């Protein structure tokens, strides 16, 4: 199982958080979705996660997707 993190821009309330969680949890191969509203960070766990599908799922509901830069 793999775990990925990214930022979602535009979330500012619990309704936004729930909207993102529900939309991402519908994606195939996603086992768990955790949204940290204070940091605008999402953690996904699952198998063979397709980042393009994740990005599309976030952007299709009106939020911004931003990868976390590796150092």
Walkthrough of the structure:
This protein is α+β, with helices and mostly antiparallel strands. The protein has one domain (2-67): Alpha-Beta Plaits (2-Layer Sandwich), CATH 3.30.70.100. Helices cover 30% and strands 35% of the residues. It has helices spanning 14-25, 51-59, and strands at residues 2-9, 30-36, 41-46, 64-67. Strands 2-3-1-4 form a four-stranded antiparallel β-sheet, covered by helices on one side. Strand 2 and strand 3 form a beta hairpin. It starts with a strand and ends with a strand. The mean pLDDT is 94.
> What is the domain total for the residues?
1
The total strand number stands at 4
* Major sheet strand order: 2-3-1-4
Shape: globular
CATH class: Alpha Beta
Structural class: alpha+beta
Estimate the strand proportion: 35-45%
The residue-averaged pLDDT reads 94
* Name of the CATH architecture: 2-Layer Sandwich
Element-by-element helix/strand order: EHEEHE
Q: pLDDT below 50 for ≥5 consecutive residues: which ranges? A: none
Biggest sheet character: 4 strands, antiparallel
- Give the terminus-to-terminus CA distance: 23 Å
- The DSSP helix count reads 2
- The name of the CATH topology is Alpha-Beta Plaits
Q: What is the helix content?
A: 25-40%
